[in-house]
Write a structure and sequence with these properties.
4 strands; 59% helix; mainly alpha
């Protein structure tokens, strides 16, 4: 992304404000074609505070991961993009609750003060699958 920032005559900022629209369009295009999308590198690899922020921003925007250029970045990226146990438990609760609601003739249900519909179940299933795949990979490297 530093190249894009240069081409835009923009400045590198912690919040990546100059390229948020571009990043969003990349994610939108990838999702339109059912593709995964990985956020670009953070060239200031010694600034781990900024890198951690970039990982969380990318995750929250919808990126599937972050490109790394230094081993010191691995833990921060893994922490940002690995589903937490509470998120996995919530995903399982969403799936179960909507299944039970449908069995009783309802199309939606409220879980933890949020309306749950079919698209929420798909997101929950994706999160669980991701968590399971990461757990399998971790078994191989332990």
């Amino acid at each position: 992304m530093p190249d894009l920032i240069s081409q835009l005559h923009a400045r590198v900022t912690h919040e990546q404000s100059a390229i948020l629209t571009s990043l969003s369009l990349v994610i939108l295009a990838a999702r339109a074609y059912g593709l995964c999308v990985v956020d670009g590198i953070a060239s200031d690899f010694k600034n781990l505070h900024s890198f951690e922020y970039a990982c969380r921003l990318g995750r929250d925007m919808g990126f599937d991961g972050k490109s790394l250029i230094h081993p010191a970045q691995i833990d921060y990226s893994n922490d940002a993009f690995t589903p937490k146990a509470a998120e996995v438990a919530n995903a399982r609760e969403i799936i179960k609750a909507l299944k039970e609601a449908k069995e009783s003739g309802h199309g939606t249900v409220v879980v933890n003060d949020r309306l749950v519909e079919n698209h929420n179940v798909k997101a929950a299933e994706r999160l669980i699958k991701l968590s399971e795949m990461i757990a399998e990979l971790e078994k191989e490297y332990i």
